[in-house]
Amino acid sequence: MNHVRPNDVFLVGHPKSGMTWLEFMLAHLLPQGRRHTPALRDLNRYVPSLAAYGPSDRLRLWPHVLRTSPRLFSTHSLFDPRLTKGRIIYLLRDPRDVIISHHHAHTSPNPDDAPDLQTFTAQEVGKPDAWSEHVEGWVDNRDIAHFCLVRYEQLLANTRRELVRVASFIQLACHDADINRALEASRFDQMRRKKMAGSWRNELPDDARQIVETAFGPTMHKVGYRLEDTLRKAG
Q1: Beta-carbon neighbour count of residue 78 at 10 Å?
Q2: Which of 93, 102, 184, 222 has the greatest count of CB atoms below 10 A from its CB?
């Protein structure tokens, strides 16, 4: 009732890595998503969040026992070896943009009460589930037999190619018309995200950027994100 099926798919990422966008496109490619038209407000019907039934460290799949395979779930959980019995899609995003996106979400309800970006950044990098721990837990773990790494930046740059690659990894039988439908449904969101890509260069003060790069620098280097000081020296 509560076990992971070999063809279960878990979309994993640190918060504010762009998961909702990828979930929405994949929802259109699932069998039930091709029969209906998924909307953001009912996305959990197609791609259930594991956190919807309690803390992310509690594996609660029993409410979805009647769902046909492949079942697709989303989670922000730190590395959980139980999930590796299925297939893992890990969405990776530059932590400097993650901080900006998280700050926007945190400040929008009550901007007058929100901490400034430098204070917010210092708080975020010190959390036990910070970006580097999340990324290294999943990317470095050698027990994952079926693992698909998706870079947010590449997803933005060539959305079709990356979506086709992920669909193939999930073993979804999709036609061009299905891919086109998913892309068209997310077109406005994609355009908005492209305008925000790399926004840390304009929005993240140097002091805050240095906090991120000092805390996460080794992990950033490991997964291919260059530090600004390195870029400046190279230039």
Answers
A1: 16
A2: 93
Looking at the 3D structure of the chain, how many domains does it have?
1
Task: Concatenate the DSSP letters of all residues of 65-113 into one string.
Answer: TTSPSSPEEEE-PPP-GGGGGSEEEEEE--HHHHHHHHHHHHHSS-GGG
CA angle, 151 then 221 then 98, to 5°:
50
CA of residue 164 relative to chain centroid, distance: 17
Give the range of the structural domain holding residue 140, as residue numbers without chain letter: 9-113+133-201
Q: Which two tokens stand for residue 115?
A: 């901490």
At 38, which CATH number?
3.40.50.300
- Which tokens in the block code for residue 96? 């400097």
| Span 119-174, pLDDT tens digits | 999 999 988 889 999 999 999 987 788 999 999 999 999 999 999 999 999 999 88
Count Cβ atoms below 10 Å from residue 60 Cβ, excluding itself: 15
pTM given for the model? 0.91
Pull the structure tokens for residue 40. 């953001």
Q: Answer yes or no: are the C-beta atoms of 107 and 44 closer than 8 Å.
A: no
User: What angle, 0 to 180 degrees and rounded to 10, lies between the N-to-C axes of helices 187-196 and 176-185?
Assistant: 60
At 11, is the secondary structure helix, strand, or coil? Answer: strand
Spatial contact of 69 and 7, defined as CB atoms under 8 Å apart = yes
Helix %, strand %, coil % of the chain (to 5): 60, 10, 35
Record the tokens describing residue 90, joined without a space.
């890990």
Check if the beta carbon of residue 28 is closer than 8 Å to that of residue 185.
Answer: yes
